[in-house]
Structure formats: C-alpha cells, structure tokens
C-alpha cells in the first residue's frame, strides 16, 4: 500500500511517501498553480500508483488574500428583508483606533449583488412569514445578468429553524452549482458572523472545487486515489465535505503541525507540549495538554495580527471550529528592513518561494531571516528542496545595505525570537498556563534553528526536535484521524441535543468515537468559552466553565451561566505509520565558524542520522539534516532519542 501526504505551504511543498519505507521530500511551492508543485514532486519521486492521499493546502486563505492572483468568483447574497448590509455594517470595530487612514477589508459581495427576500423567522424559531419562490424571479434574472457563480443564503434566526433557507436552496439549485446556506455552515447566533461565514464559504466554493478538480487530474496519473484533507479542527475530511464547506480548510496546514506534535507527544509520553512550527512565511504556536488540542469557535480570515494576536475587525469572521493557534509573520523568508527612524524591523512581508531569500539567487533583493542564518553559519549553503547552493555573497551584500551584515543578521534573529516568544505566550500565559511547565516541540524548515533560543526567552528547559522537522506537518497528516463536526444552538434538552448531533454524524462516519464541547458564557457577556464535556450534565458543565473562566481571566461572576451552543466531533481512528529510530554508522563531526553573541566561534557540526542514540552533545553546536538545521546554543545539551527525536535540556 502506498500512502502519500502533501502539505502545500507558502514557500515549500512537503511530500511524504510511505510504501515499504518512509520517504521525505521538499519542492518549492508554485503559488499561481499549487497543484503544479504536487505534479513536480510526485513525477520526480514516485513511479507507483497511490492508494491513499492526504493533503493540506493554503489555497483558501491565500485566495482571499489575493496571493494567487486569482479573481474571486462573483458571489451573491440572499438574505432577510432589511438585512442585506449586515456584512458591511459588521460590528463597527475599529482595529487601529488612532489610524485615521484605516480602511476596513473590502466587502466580498458588492451592494448590487446583495438581495433581500420578504421572509421572517422570529427569535424563538417560529416562522412568521414563509419564503416564497415566486418572489425570486426578478432576483434570479438579476443574478444571471451579473454572471453570478456562487450564492450565499443567510436568513434571520435560521439556526433555530432552517426551513426557509432549505426551501430556497432546493429551488435555486436548478440554476446554481454553488450554494452555501448558513444552517449548513454555521448554525448559531450572531447575525454578522454567521452571514460572514456563509459568504466566505460561498466565495471559496468555486475556487476550492476548481483546485480539487485540477488536483484530481494530476492524481489520475497515479491511480486516482481517494483524497482526504486536513480540516481546521485537526482531523481529516473527505473531498465532498470540503467542496460543500471549503471553510473547513482555511487553516489546514497549521492544524496539521499541531496534530503531528500531539501524536508524537503521545509516543514519547509527554503530556504538556507547545507546538512551535516555523516555516518559510510564518510561525505558529499551539498547546497540547494530555494529548488533546484546544479548539476555538471563531477565526478572522484575511485579517491582520499584532504580535500573534488577531486584530478583530481587520478581516472576515468565520464561525467554525479551529485549532487554537497564534501566528506571527516570522519565517525563513521574512524580510528585514529599516524604518524612517533607522530602527531595524522584521516582516510582515515575506519573500516566499518566488523570488525567495536573496541567497536563492532568484531575483530577491531584500535580506531575510534565511539570509541571516546563512551568513552567521547556523545553516549550510545547500538549499532545501533542491540541489542548488545558496549564495552567501549575495546575502552579505543585501544585509550590508542595512549596516554591518553580521550585526544586522544577529539583531534580526533576536527580534524574530522575541516575536515568536510573544506568540507562544498568547497560547499559554494568556490562557492561564505556565510555559515553563511545557516541553517545546520545534519543527518546520526553520524551526529547529531558533527553538532553543526561543525557549531561553520563555524559561522553558526542555525541547524536542522531532524526526524530519522540515516536513513534520506533512507527517501530521499521516497521523491524523477522520474527524467531522456538528453543532446546535440553544438546545432545550442537553442530552437530547447531544444525541441528535451524534445521530447526524453517524451518517458520515461509521462507528466513531465522540468528543463533546459546549460554548458557555455568563448572562450578559458578549463572548463564550468552549468547554470540553465529559459528562452531559448542566451543573457539571457550568462548574467546568467557572473553573476555566477563573483560570483564564482570574475572576468569576455572580451571574447565571448560559449554554449557547453545543458541538460534537465524530472521530474515526486511522492506522498510523510507525516512526522507528534508524541506526547509522557514527561519523566524526566537522567544524564551522558560527557567529554567536557578537563573536565567531568554531563549533562542531554533526549529521543527525549519524548520531548514536543517547550520546550527549553540548552547545554551542549544530546538527544538520536534509531540510533543516538544529542550532544548540551555549548552556544546552542535546541527544538523539530512541524514537529518532532530538531531546535538548537547558543546563
């Protein structure tokens, strides 16, 4: 049996092939046609049919950001009379309070393509006025005239009673291939967020379905295997589910990394883990406690972030389950620059894979963090994902424009480390967790270079560099389980509500395990906390909520608690590949000059696959492998573990 895992990132496309053995590859991403990188990699490294294909991609997010140069399909919104401007009015948040030139993100649907229907469901779920298909003739004509390719339908209070939405969808499905209704995508209150989620889903439907059609054409040459894709919630879903709900895969790549950390942590028996994934474009951090990942109910796609914190009102809200992650613009391709005052800055711009860092010699002009690590000697001059040699002379010339190249490089990396430490604090300290009680898992092509310096910033004493860190997120796809979600708002009876959700999911997943959650808040609050549900009992859920609220915010309120939304995940476990330690002949280390704390030091450079198990190495040193380099700073010791992991301890 041949299983293939492919994770398309902003800079590199990671490929894992499992037949009799496990093979790891990296190829540069092709942003304009992401399926081309898949074709390039498979054609180069595989000459067999594929039995199982698992996949993560950034196409959903990057399409909304315009990074693929694609024109978003014309999409229309059909909503309750009087509510067509909800998506433009929003919440009136002002993300940058003192910026007089701030502009909100452009509306995904222009005013002329927002239509109203005279229908109404009240706040208790009673249908006051039915939606009549006879009222749709002029709307249908206008949409056809405007060449509408996709349609979002979101009626008032349809999360309580969806008949009007369903009836209109059934009628219009004769005329439109892509229809997204709010009850299918986000059946919960908050009119603006629900409408925004439905609109984002509708906009992405033609984009994602078109991409998957092209991907299937590529895979026809390899036996037309079934495709499963990583969802935002950290599980695999079918292509049919993704085509119907492309909001499923907005953060599929970052989710795969956290799942990989969770699964590998269970192999190692480490129950408190921080997942730290630094790739070519961004760095992501998440927590894993007792081998479980935290889930959040909302994400803002296409928005900006401030030191890893999503700026509310800067993007398009999506009410859908996501792994709780913080993300900062700090990757190998992050650009280094100076502002008008002469202060050194990093990001948010990234060189990506085209043109890439200056050292790639593909036309890049601005120095990046990869260029910095190259001139400092932390990484060697072999380019990941190819046989090309990195040009240190070009990197030095670019850094020289900003000052002494070595001082600039070291300062930029220290700035990046601070930024990444902030991201980790967001998912630990701001959640009431102490990062010093966790083990830091560092991976991604650039992650091992900085994991231990970042741990120093946080006071973390234990670090794990997993096997094949450069493609570890793709390994997470191999380790993931099938996972589907269903939710219900304002359940009258908790047990009956959870049972109904389980019955719904059993149509999609055979003999699943169920994980339950409840979104709770104090009466009068404007936001909720998502609480794991072990026992379906209102008093137990409320107690768990008050404990979580106190741990997160440091206080509780003397108010009633309401359970707003309940959700269930159906999980079907898959057969996981074994990760065995490979014993290799020991090789003597080489020497290389590395720039550390303002001076050059001649340090030992080891090959990871030649390290004997449990042989301790003291920093400063470098451990190299295909696709990544691990920098061990002074004050750290590291050894190769029995599961091919690198275990580092701060002395």
TrEMBL record:
Sample GO molecular function, one term: 5-oxoprolinase (ATP-hydrolyzing) activity
GO BP term, pick one: glutathione metabolic process
Chain ranges of the Hydantoinase/oxoprolinase N-terminal domain: 4-175
Protein name listed in UniProt: Hydantoinase/oxoprolinase family protein
Domain Acetophenone carboxylase-like C-terminal positions: 507-638
Origin superkingdom: Archaea
Stored InterPro entries: ACX-like_C (IPR049517), ATPase_NBD (IPR043129), Hydant_A_N (IPR008040), Hydantoinase_A (IPR002821), Oxoprolinase-like (IPR045079)
Organism of derivation: Ferroplasma acidiphilum
């Amino acid at each position: 049996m041949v299983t293939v895992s492919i994770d398309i990132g902003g800079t590199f496309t990671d490929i894992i092939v499992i037949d009799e053995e496990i093979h790891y590859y990296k190829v540069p991403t092709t942003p304009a046609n992401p399926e081309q990188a898949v074709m390039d990699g498979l054609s180069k490294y595989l000459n067999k049919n594929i039995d199982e294909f698992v996949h993560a991609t950034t196409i959903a997010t990057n399409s909304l950001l315009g990074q693929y140069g694609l024109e978003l399909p014309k999409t229309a919104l059909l909503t309750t009379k009087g509510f067509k401007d909800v998506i433009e009015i929003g919440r009136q948040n002002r993300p940058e309070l003192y910026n007089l030139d701030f502009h909100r993100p452009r509306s995904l649907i222009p005013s002329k393509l927002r239509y109203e229907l005279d229908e109404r469901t009240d706040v208790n779920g009673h249908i006051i006025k039915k939606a009549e298909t006879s009222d749709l003739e002029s709307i249908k004509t206008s949409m056809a005239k405007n060449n509408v390719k996709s349609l979002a339908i979101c009626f008032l209070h349809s999360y309580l009673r969806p008949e009007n939405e369903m009836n209109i969808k059934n009628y219009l499905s004769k005329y439109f291939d892509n229809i997204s209704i709010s009850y299918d995508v986000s059946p919960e209150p908050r009119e603006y967020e629900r409408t925004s989620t439905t609109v984002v889903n509708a906009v992405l439907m033609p984009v994602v379905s078109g991409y998957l059609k092209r991907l299937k054409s590529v895979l026809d040459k390899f036996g037309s295997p079934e495709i499963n894709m990583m969802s935002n919630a950290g599980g695999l879903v079918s292509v049919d589910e993704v085509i119907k709900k492309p909001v499923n895969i907005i953060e599929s790549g970052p989710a795969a990394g956290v799942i990989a950390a969770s699964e590998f942590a269970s192999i190692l028996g480490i129950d408190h883990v921080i997942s730290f994934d630094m790739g070519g474009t961004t760095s992501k951090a998440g927590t894993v406690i007792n081998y479980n990942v935290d889930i959040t109910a909302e994400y803002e796609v296409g928005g900006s972030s401030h030191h890893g914190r999503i700026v509310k009102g800067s993007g398009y809200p999506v009410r859908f389950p996501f792994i709780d992650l913080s993300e900062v613009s700090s990757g190998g391709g992050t650009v280094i620059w100076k502002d008008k005052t002469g202060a050194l800055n990093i990001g948010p711009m990234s060189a990506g894979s085209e043109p890439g860092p200056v050292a790639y010699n593909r036309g890049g002009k601005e120095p990046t963090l990869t260029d910095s690590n190259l001139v400092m000697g932390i990484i060697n001059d072999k380019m990941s994902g190819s046989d090309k040699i990195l040009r240190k002379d070009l990197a030095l010339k670019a850094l020289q424009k900003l000052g002494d190249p070595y001082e600039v490089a070291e300062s930029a990396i220290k700035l990046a480390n601070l930024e990444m430490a902030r991201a980790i604090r967001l998912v630990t300290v701001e959640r009431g967790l102490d990062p010093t009680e966790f083990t830091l898992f560092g991976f991604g092509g650039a992650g091992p270079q900085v994991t231990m310096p970042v741990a120093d910033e946080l006071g973390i004493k234990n670090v794990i560099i997993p096997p094949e860190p450069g493609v570890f997120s793709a390994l997470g796809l191999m380790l993931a389980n099938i996972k589907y979600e269903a939710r219900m708002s304002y359940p009258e009876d908790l047990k009956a509500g959870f049972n109904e959700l389980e019955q719904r999911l059993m149509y999609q997943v055979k003999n699943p395990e169920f994980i339950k959650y409840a979104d709770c808040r104090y009466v009068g609050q404007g936001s909720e906390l998502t609480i794991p549900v072990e026992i379906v009992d209102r008093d137990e859920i409320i107690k768990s909520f008050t404990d979580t609220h106190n741990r997160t915010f440091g206080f509780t309120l003397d108010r009633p608690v309401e359970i707003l939304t309940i959700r269930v995940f159906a999980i079907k476990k898959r057969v996981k590949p074994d990760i065995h330690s490979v014993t290799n002949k020991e090789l003597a280390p080489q020497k290389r000059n590395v720039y550390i704390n303002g001076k050059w030091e001649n340090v030992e450079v080891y090959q990871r696959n030649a390290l004997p198990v449990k042989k301790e190495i003291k920093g400063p040193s470098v451990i190299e492998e295909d696709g990544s380099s691990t920098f061990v700073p002074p004050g750290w010791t590291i050894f190769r573990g029995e599961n091919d992991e690198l275990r580092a301890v701060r002395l």
